[in-house]
Amino acid sequence: MMTKNIPSIGIVGATGFIGRELVANLFNYSRLNLAVRDKQKAEILFQDNINMIEITEVDITKKEDIVHFCENCHIIINCIGPSYRILDQIASVALEVGAHYIDPSGDETLYNLLVSHENQNTSAILAAGMLPGLSGLLPRDLAENFDEIDQIVGYSGGIDYFSPAGAEEFIISLSNGFGRGGACIRAGGIKSSPYSPFVSRELSGVPPFDAYPFISNELVHICKDLSIKHGDWFNIFFDKHVLDYISVIAMSNNKTELVPNEFVEGLIKANALDTVGRTPFQLLAIEMQGKQYGQSCIMSSIIHAGSGAKLSASVSASAALAICKDDVPIGIHYAANILSPQTTIKDIQQWIPDFKHITFNKNTVEEEGVL
Questions:
Q1: Rounded CA separation 101/95 (Å)
Q2: With bands split at pLDDT 50, 70 and 90, how would you rate the model's confidence at 176?
Q3: Would the CA dihedral through 322, 327, 331, 334 be positive or negative?
Q4: Which end of the chain is more exposed for a tag (fewer CB within 10 A), N or C?
Q5: What residues have CB less than 8 Å from 211, skipping those under 6 apart?
Q6: What angle do CA 302, 303, 307 make, to 5 degrees?
């Protein structure tokens, strides 16, 4: 681990969508070491900041390359995806050599793999992205306004671009490894959703959309921690091409462990049709019902930004700053369980100019036009 006063943050996969945003967020806070496949291309990409960063060519299939890179960093942020292919390939090495670890993705499989690599000096923060991550911090922030919570409803989605890794990550997230499609939480348990697979729904200030019921592992943990008995979450879509292609994938009955390349290519093409001529954005919206000072209360919290990659990068960057400030205890954590929602949102606001966060009480404020 680095022992100098200024911590060194290593970003693996720095030339990807999320990696590039992380460099922009963090180069004023720390010495950055970027792990890339092609150093020459990376030097061109980061030429404006070349004097403030170090670029290292790393072959992630070679453990000795990963070890050498991690040994020279205080914190490792892994932006290489999809996460189900990488698993603990980088994370376990980082922890073994004494570096803290952050992953914008990461699920329960990675969590369980890393438990055996825990030591008394390092922390790991998983699921430090937009979803999961910010999607868990937002409910925890809103929950502080309640004495008791009866119900939570969440929405996530938007109009955005897919990288190949992002498209594959999205496809795999529809499987039961990350959550359950067509499910909800009732009486504290996971049940089949009463809503049809692609139900049309509306939110004030948001274009009409179709919603797919989906319960993530993150939401299950939140409902358990906050004693919420009734929960729904919807992935939202603003056009039909991606929705139609998801149906194609579902009907394919693919039995392979890896997502076929044709699925990734097909999803990217479908998404391109949905995004053409539109301004990209991402939306997270939470509604809670419960008791506040003994009275019935309904509150909503909405986040709107122009890029999912920027949101994910900002959550991971905020996690890195939290580690630098010694605000994160030793051990393996999920971002939604360990980061301060208020601090994370404040950090995001400084990095994303078009970021909007609105919280309002439906008992006292008109909902129309909140965005």
A1: 7
A2: low
A3: negative
A4: C
A5: 155, 195, 198, 199, 200, 201, 234, 235, 236, 237
A6: 150
Q: Cβ(300)–Cβ(285) under 8 Å?
A: yes
Are 139 and 116 part of one and the same domain? no
Q: Which pair of tokens denotes residue 344?
A: 């994370």
| Nearest CA among 185, 190, 196 for reference residue 154 | 185
**Residue 175 pLDDT grade (very low, low, confident, very high; cuts 50, 70, 90):** low
Per-residue CA distances from 165 to 138, 252, 305 (Å): 25, 21, 21
Overall average pLDDT of the 237-250 stretch: 87
Query: Is the peptide bond prior to 164 cis by the omega test (within 30 degrees of 0)?
Result: no
Residue 84 in domain: yes
**Sequence-distant (≥ 6) Cβ neighbours of residue 170 within 8 angstroms:** 162, 267
Query: H-helix or E-strand containing 101?
Result: strand 100-102
Angle, helix 217-225 to helix 134-143, in steps of 10 degrees: 20
For residue 214, give both structure tokens: 């989906």
Determine what percent of the chain is predicted with pLDDT higher than 90. Answer: 70
The domain that holds 108 is classified in CATH as 3.40.50.720
Structural domain including 151 reads 134-307+353-361
Among candidates 115, 126, 75, which has minimal Cα distance to 99? Answer: 75
Contact 286, 146 (CB under 8 A): no
Residues 104 and 79: beta-carbon distance below 8 Å: yes
What is the token pair recorded at 75? Answer: 């914190």
pLDDT for res 220: 95
Q: Could you tell me which residues are beta bridge partners of residue 287? A: 153, 300
Residue 95 domain-assigned (yes or no): yes
User: Is the distance from CB of 365 to CB of 39 less than 8 angstroms?
Assistant: no
Query: Quick check: pTM over 0.90?
Result: yes
SS3 138: helix
| Last residue in a domain, options 61, 96, 126 | 126
